[in-house]
Amino acid sequence: MRARLAGPATEVVRRARRAVARRQRPAATATARPLAPAPLSLDPTERALDFRQPDDTSCGAASLVFARMLRDEAYAAHVMADPAHWRAEVLAMHRRVGGLRDHDGRWQWPWLRVVGTSPWGAARQMGGGPERSGRGTRYAARALDPDDLGAEFDRILAAASAGHTVPLYVGDALHPAHVVLVVSAEQNRLRVYEPSAGRMLRIGREAFATSRFRLGGWSVPWFAVLPR
């Protein structure tokens, strides 16, 4: 019975995703303003540091900590000063983005940590005050149109080319399951921090548009947290 229902369920989900994405499209097409170069460039491979997520549900929190490290050199120095700091900061971030108040003390909808990090919680953490993870102040979680992923790639590429990091939610045809961080754009490809492996990967437009990539075992783009 489950196999028989898989096709219809996938189609229903795809249509719902498309409808939500197309309602959001006017706001999602805003052009990100170019920023000055980030103060720090981190590559786990080059630095021989373990930037893997500390547990099965902290991929979103790990991506947000990594984003803040790229924005804030002093914070990055603190995290890298002791191997234990990475785990502590990721778990603290996970509690914060799922709690009743965000990093600026503003009320937010709570979220169960056992199911990871919500897209709207990631958007709030990316923007705001000094302890934000992003380089801008306002971000929004946008559903990605499954029937126009090439255009969605271009929006993410534009934000990354302008100097923003972009949390990206991926999964399978039925649900999002993993969060990664688009760190930069290079030669029309996205450079992505993948927290389950703690390393950088690169994804081109064609692979993204056809879901022919693997990030933590997942290959369907669902949401992107983009600057407003």
Uncertain segments? none
In angstroms, what separates the terminal alpha carbons? 44 Å
Q: In angstroms, what is the radius of gyration?
A: 17 Å
Residue-averaged pLDDT, rounded?
Answer: 91
Helix count, DSSP H or I runs of 4 or more residues: 8
Percent strand: 15-25%
Helix/strand class: alpha+beta
Q: What's the number of extended β-strand segments?
A: 6
Strand order of the largest sheet: 1-6-2-3-4-5
List SSEs in N-to-C order: HHHHHHEHEEEEHE
Net shape: globular
Helix content: 40-55%
**What about the largest sheet?**
6 strands, antiparallel
What is this entry, summarized?
The chain is built from 8 helices and 6 strands.
Explain what this protein looks like in three dimensions.
Helix content is 41%, strand content 18%. The protein is of the alpha+beta class and 228 residues long. Strands 1-6-2-3-4-5 form a 6-stranded antiparallel sheet. The chain is globular and about 50 Å long. The relative contact order is 0.17. The mean pLDDT is 91.
